[in-house]
Specification:
heterodimer; A: alpha/beta; FAD/NAD(P)-binding domain; 8-stranded mixed sheet; B: mainly alpha; 6 helices; 50% helix
């Protein structure tokens, strides 16, 4: 049997970047993905008048609702935040909103600066060249010059239209003397690298027939395959194997017929997200590793972080046409992002303007509370539909070892493999941030002249960022991987997804996940024979 | 799932209680969406049972009640069987807001184009950088490390 240089588990944001970079550096790369290619281009739900129904069923972001054979269920009985993820070539970028911020330099030094959690073993400057490279591949739009962030390279594409709601809120932020800026988004605002310019249709999460909204099946994967990477779909990995020296030797995967295969490799890279990767490590119990692989620190599965998110909605006296434009991306304020002594919490949050829903989404609630049934239904619907703008309060979630992923005793996926079980609580610091942040969002809507302001303290369906369950660090006693994403327990086992985050920042993580993966790929490709047995 | 004639009649009455009509909007029970709701329920293995629980839980003579009586019965159901009620409410909203007649009213009343977002998309004015004049005056507010 042939032995690949590298097997990558997961074809999402991180796995695709890793596969492309390593294949481009001349390595023999095989990627195993439990999902398949998804047609989000020729036939998307939002080409039909009933498009909003698909969000309740086939295109629901929760695997527990979607229940596709490629998905694995998640026990969410002990968490107030429900998980969103997708299993396919492109991973969760298939369903995302494409907000693409970078972490701040301070996000990597939270212990030094604020006395909480831990510093990362890497800095913003370490990642900066990889942020830039990634922005080019993903086709990022935006505008450099934001005073809330370090100077950055010119954006590959100009910013998105911010719409009437964005315009109104931008002026309100100005009136309050607060920061705001147009977002960086992985959306092509002009034709770019074979992708067409966005036509502002709105529901990016349902797929993009124009390929303007980036997902890695249209950005990284064509380049990775052209560079020689091999991609095996519908391949569900259930175990990482070790050789007799305790080094990773490959993975065992199951095909849709239940037949097991052993893919041997010199290096194993895990990129299955902060829940999937922890699950796989815990499943990889074997001689000498009774608590799972790479887990001598006991940290695998612990410190699960999300971005607990509250939502405040302003109802205005005029149509804002919020259903026009990419739903998740317009402008943001980082006025309260950095720790400030006068705040009743440590660390900070971002307020991000979200556009509004279609008719069914508005009626069902989501950003807004559900439109009540009965006699007042139509009046409320007309008051709200198309006349709202929404500000998230997206908070930093500090690591807590009791927030964790374990293996469920009963729940299994379609291959009979134990499903993950999530135990998670929102911290007091986060609640303080959510409540204080909601007051600031209300203040912004008052300044903007909103007629009514509605508030949801915590959005249950905001488990879209899965971080921290195989944390990075210099000390093998307290962390799972080193700064190059190599497991302390097995240096030829790498983890490159959000699992390795030491802290979560208060920002969407995909650009940072991909920058970390690209940096790890370069280091791996540069490694000599002592570190990795290439020959 | 297949609805019996009696179930269809009950559901029709319940729909009109949930989403009543007025001068502008059709009542959900007048749209003939009962079968559509049964089809939608079949998309989730748990929903047919929830719909059954909802219909079984309505009081005798529900369909003959006046509007106020239906409202009270639905309120009681919402309290007694919140899960089943929630499922039916979602099914009702799903059927209502994807019905062409309702989308035409949405369009007429709000200016929303009652069509799929693609392939036309929407026109929006491009971003005008002049709006950044104030915020560009800010000193850097990120922390140097």
């Amino acid at each position: 049997m042939s032995v690949a240089d590298v097997v990558v588990v997961g074809a999402g944001a991180a796995g695709s970047a890793m596969a492309w970079r390593l294949a481009s550096r001349g390595l023999d790369v095989v990627c195993l993905e439990q999902g398949g290619w998804v047609d989000t281009y020729d036939s998307v739900p939002h080409q039909k008048p009933t498009w909003e129904l698909s969000r309740q069923t086939s295109h629901h972001p929760s695997p527990n609702v979607r229940k596709a054979v490629e998905d694995y269920p998640v026990n969410e009985d002990h968490t107030p935040i429900k998980l969103l993820m997708y299993n396919a070539v492109g991973g969760s970028t298939i369903h995302w909103g494409a907000h693409f911020p970078r972490f701040h330099p301070s996000d990597f030094k939270v212990r030094t600066l604020d006395g909480v959690a831990d510093d990362w073993p890497i800095t913003y400057e370490d990642l900066e060249p990889y942020y830039d490279l990634n922005d080019q591949i993903m086709g990022v739009c935006g505008l450099s010059g934001d005073p809330a962030n370090p100077p950055r390279s010119p954006r590959p594409l100009p910013p998105l239209p911010i719409g009437k709601g964005g315009d109104r809120m931008a002026r309100a932020f100005d009136d309050l003397g607060w920061h705001w800026w147009p977002v960086d988004a992985a959306i092509a605002t002009q034709d770019y690298d074979g992708r067409s310019a966005c036509n502002n249709c709105g529901p990016c999460d349902l797929g993009c027939p124009l390929k303007s909204r980036a997902s890695t099946d249209v950005t990284y994967w064509p380049k990775a395959l052209a560079a020689g990477a091999r991609l095996v779909t519908h391949a569900r990995v259930r175990k990482v194997t070790l050789d007799n020296r305790g080094r990773a030797s490959g993975v065992v995967w199951v095909d849709p017929d239940g037949v097991e295969h052993h893919e041997k490799s010199k290096v194993v890279v895990l990129a299955g997200n902060g829940v999937g990767t922890a699950r796989l490590l815990l499943l990889s119990v074997q001689a000498g590793h009774p608590d799972g692989l790479a887990n001598s620190s006991g940290q695998v599965g612990r410190n699960l972080m999300h971005h607990p998110t509250g939502m405040v909605t302003g109802v205005f006296d005029e149509p804002l046409d919020g259903f026009k434009g990419p739903f998740a991306v317009s402008i943001y304020s980082q006025e309260f992002y950095e720790t400030q002594a006068e705040h009743p919490f440590v660390r900070g949050f971002q307020m991000q303007l979200i556009r509004s829903d279609g008719p069914l989404g508005t009626a069902l609630g989501g950003y807004l509370p559900r439109v009540p049934w009965g006699d007042e239904h139509h009046t409320k619907f007309e008051d709200w539909f198309g006349r709202t703008a929404n500000l998230t309060v997206t908070t930093e979630d500090l690591p807590n070892p009791d927030n964790r992923v374990t293996l469920d005793d009963e729940l299994v996926d379609s291959s009979g493999i134990a499903a993950p079980n999530i135990s998670y609580e929102v911290s007091d610091n986060t609640w303080a941030m959510l409540d204080w942040g909601a007051q600031r969002a209300r203040q912004a809507f008052e300044a903007a002249g909103a007629e009514a302001i509605l508030q949801q303290r915590l959005i249950a369906g905001a488990g879209f960022h899965l971080l921290g369950t195989a944390r990075m660090g210099d000390d093998p006693a307290t962390s799972v991987v080193d700064q190059w994403c190599r497991a302390h327990d097995a240096p030829n086992l790498l983890i490159v997804d959000g699992s390795v985050f030491v802290t979560a920042a208060a920002l969407n993580p995909t650009s940072t996940i991909q920058a970390i993966a690209l940096r790890a790929a370069d280091h791996l490709a540069d490694s000599n024979d002592t570190e990795v047995a290439w020959n | 799932m297949e609805l019996t004639e009696s179930q269809s009649r009950l559901l029709r009455a319940a729909l009109t209680g949930l989403l009543p009509g007025n001068d502008a909007w059709p009542a959900a029970g007048e749209l003939g969406v009962e079968e559509r709701i049964a089809e939608l329920a079949d998309l989730d293995p748990d929903h047919p049972a929830a719909l059954g629980t909802f219909l079984d839980g309505l009081p005798d003579g529900f369909a003959e009640l006046a509007a106020a009586g239906r409202h009270d019965a639905l309120k009681a159901m919402e309290f007694d069987e919140p899960d089943a009620f929630g499922v039916v409410m979602v099914l009702a909203y799903n059927a209502y807001y994807t019905h062409p007649e309702v989308l035409a009213v949405v369009s007429e009343r709000t200016g929303y184009a009652a069509r799929a977002p693609q392939p036309e998309g929407y026109e929006l004015d491009p971003f005008d950088e002049s709006i950044l004049a104030t915020v560009r005056q800010r000193e850097p507010l990120w922390r140097q490390v």
